[in-house]
Amino acid sequence: MLNAPSLLRHLLCVSLLTSGIAWAANEELDELRASDSNEWQQVKNDKYHHIKTWSKREDGKRIRSFKVEAVMDSSLEAIARATFDFENYPRWYFKMKQSKVLKQVSPTEVYFYQVFSAPPGLPDRDVVVHLNIDPYSPRRGYFRLNIAAAPDYLPPQPGLVRMPGFNMTTTYTPLPESKWKLDVEGYIDPGGTAPTWATNYVQRNAPYQVLLGLQRVSSSEEYTQSKKPMSLKYME
């Protein structure tokens, strides 16, 4: 039989263990509620890199939408050079294996093609992206990239699943000290039969990783010091 001090310690341990289990269960329930919410739920708040991300459930869609806010400590020209260098996206873009221009329609419109690595056991994904650009001007007050999937622009490719959704709007507005505020809102549907929970996990993490990569490359000398002519317009 336990004496009084031992019994007290035993009851305390049981109480702490029970509280821990209840806390963990509540955390899982909160995450489940967040995943089903049609309100924006913050996913990350990286104060060091000045990146915040959110996700939310959209009515009638099986995948969450995402939203990103970030501060870019680069010139708009360097950001545009990194953004328009499509062939080099695999160096920094989350899970991207290939990226190439298909057709430039005008200085503010282009189609490009990308291939993404899928989790083990699933086929890789590809997407045709249609980009329309709103160049920056003092009158407009922002530089905007309007991106939409164009799944029927190119025939299906062997061994790849075509992504039916790759839609987002990226807006840059000027800040003091030559910095730029970036706002992204979008929705990506990888298609195929990937489990929804796995797709949502990627979609909750990919926007943050992409912004980290863009911050890094747009601050590199490759783009800050480049004098190469650009075929796409970022400024009127």
Molecular structure report:
By secondary structure, this protein is α+β, with helices and mostly antiparallel strands. The protein folds into two domains: 1-36; 38-224, START domain (Alpha-D-Glucose-1,6-Bisphosphate, Chain A, domain 4). The protein is 29% helix and 33% strand. The chain contains four helices and ten strands, in the order H-E-E-E-H-E-E-E-E-E-E-E-H-H. Strands 1, 2, 3, 4, 5, 6, 7, 8, 9 and 10 form a ten-stranded mixed β-sheet that branches. Strand 1 (41-46) and strand 2 form a beta hairpin. The radius of gyration is 23 Å and the shape is globular. The relative contact order is 0.19. The model is unreliable at 4-35 (pLDDT under 50). InterPro entries: START-like_dom_sf (IPR023393), START_lipid-bd_dom (IPR002913). Residues 1-24 form the signal peptide.
Give a brief outline of the structure.
The protein contains four helices and ten strands.
